[in-house]
Amino acid sequence: MSNSAFYRGLELAQTAARGAAADPATRAASVQAAVDRELAASPSAAVRACQAGCSFCCRHPVGVTLPEAIHLRAAIDRLPPQQRQERIAAVTAAATCTAAMPWGALAALACPLLIDGRCSVYAARPLPCRSWASFDATACERHSRGAGDIPCDTDAFALGLGASAGLGPDGQAELRSALAAMLHAEPDDVERAFAAARRAGT
Ligand code: SF4
Questions:
Q1: In the chain, N or C terminus with fewer CB closer than 10 Å?
Q2: For the chain, what are the domain ranges?
């Protein structure tokens, strides 16, 4: 994983966030769009195996920054009413079931935002989901069964990590835990809910 990719992500986030509106969801969307453009333009884009409908990586633990969690919460709120209720129930149940699990054990579990193998909030998915990129979908499938490693684009992931650091200097919370707390919080209390959520990596 290269330091230069990390610092490029940090710089991208700081530049994109400066040009965006003050509200956190717009700032997150702006940084995510900048990262998407950079990833699409990189030479390794042509040999990445990732494509729509492939969701093996949606079984990895995910850390989200506060602006991204607010962006995700708004995206869930915009889902059709029944889907919204189902996602809130799925996220809440997943957060409860996984609260005592170590971070590594989360790797075996599907993200509660998946519906039929697709992300229900794809346009608002956080930076780790955008920047995790595999060179071999077969290896991802094998890895989902607990075997082998995934040859992944480490520079792409480093870019996403740097952008996360720039977007959310207060750190990342675990996706299920943060969303479950924030979906049940009043709008003016989401920052406190995020701060109380499980930290990424713990
Ligand atoms: S937020 Fe979406 S893209 Fe990310 S792990 Fe969950 S379902 Fe997959």
A1: C
A2: 3-196
